[in-house]
Design brief:
single chain, OB fold (Dihydrolipoamide Acetyltransferase, E2P), six-stranded mixed β-sheet, binds adenosine-5'-diphosphate, binds magnesium ion
Length: 304
């Protein structure tokens, strides 16, 4: 189990993180979400042991994670960290990068393991390509595979799919998270993309104003967003009295209702339209199956 105990941290006098406290069990997937600059990457770096802590402690099982003051080489064998920058070796191939830290004494096993990981990140066609000739998204996939190569007990991922195009993203997410669950590898994912979280994370933490403002399952926070910031992570929402926070898909256009609005604009959304309408002199957003004409009058209900 990972234990982050009452950690407070700042690069200078200003505190970036205050009294951060949570646990992650073996094999569990925890998502850390928050706006850009909220301290997600800083928190991962602290867990990895990149900085010395003045307040609070971090443990993996019985081992206390210590910073550079105590460790000549940063990091521990049981933990791997895929940064936003990847840190790959450009002049050797994909296969060589992934196998870099695997033992040379077991060449058969090494080759088998490397092949398996290349499959997880869908890079079969690029095994023998030099990393410098890969796109950003391909490099990100090599970094993922390399982190998995030594079977860590816990993996830290910083926006792991941010450079990967939409064609590949969903299938890659499924493969990587499935691999982690099957191998009982705990995982902490810093992200601002709800698709990295929904369907994969067991729990999620919301960072804001240097603190954890919410911690629960993605389902619970999606269904009970107490703050606009939390709702905004999951989708388009409105604040409508007396209902409070209501998602666009919870407003339904009907023939007759006391709630009346005027259509301002329709945005195509794939399998539906997002209707922007004026209600009580404010903009609201309603999910609807059709496009609606500007200035047409509509009536709607809140259907929670
Ligand atoms: P996130 O990953 O959520 O976008 P970061 O953890 O990268 O947030 O950054 C949190 C805050 O810490 C930001 O205000 C950022 O400017 C600052 N920060 C990040 N890294 C450093 C550093 N090495 N030195 C000083 N300030 C930093
Ligand atoms: Mg970051």
């Amino acid at each position: 189990m990972l234990q982050v105990k009452n950690v407070t941290f700042g690069y200078s006098k200003t505190k970036i993180l205050k009294a951060i406290d949570f646990r992650v069990n073996a094999g569990e997937n925890l998502a850390i979400i928050g706006e850009s600059g909220s301290g997600k990457s800083t928190l991962l770096k602290l867990i990895y042991g990149e900085y010395d802590l003045k307040e609070g402690q971090i443990f993996w099982k019985d081992t206390e994670i210590l910073g550079p003051k105590y460790n000549l080489v940063i990091g521990y064998d049981f933990m791997k960290y895929v940064t936003q920058e990847f840190d790959l070796m450009p002049f050797i191939t994909v296969e060589e990068n992934i196998g870099k830290y695997l033992s040379r004494f077991y060449p058969k096993e090494k080759q088998k393991r490397t092949k398996e990981l290349i499959k997880v990140v869908e890079l079969e066609d690029f095994s023998n390509t030099k990393v410098k000739n890969l796109s950003g998204g391909q490099k990100q996939r090599v970094a993922l595979a390399r982190a998995l190569a030594k079977e860590p007990e816990i993996l830290l991922l910083d926006e792991p799919f941010s450079h990967i195009d939409n064609f590949k993203k969903q299938s890659l997410r499924r493969k990587v998270f499935k691999h982690l669950k099957e191998n009982n590898i705990a995982c902490i994912v810093a992200t601002h993309d709800k698709n990295d979280v929904l369907g994969f994370a067991d729990e999620m933490i919301v960072l804001h104003d240097s603190k954890i403002i919410a911690k629960d399952s993605p389902q619970y926070l999606n269904n009970n967003p107490k703050l606009p910031l939390i709702a905004s992570f999951f989708g388009e929402f409105n604040v409508i009295k007396p209902y409070g926070i209501v998602y666009a898909h919870q407003l339904k256009i009907v023939e007759h209702s006391d709630l009346k609005a005027v259509v301002k604009q329709s945005y195509f959304n794939g399998n539906s339209w997002l209707i922007e309408a004026e209600y009580n002199s404010e903009s609201i957003f309603i999910k609807h199956k059709d496009e609606l004409e500007e200035n047409s009058k509509i009536q709607f209900i809140v259907s929670l």
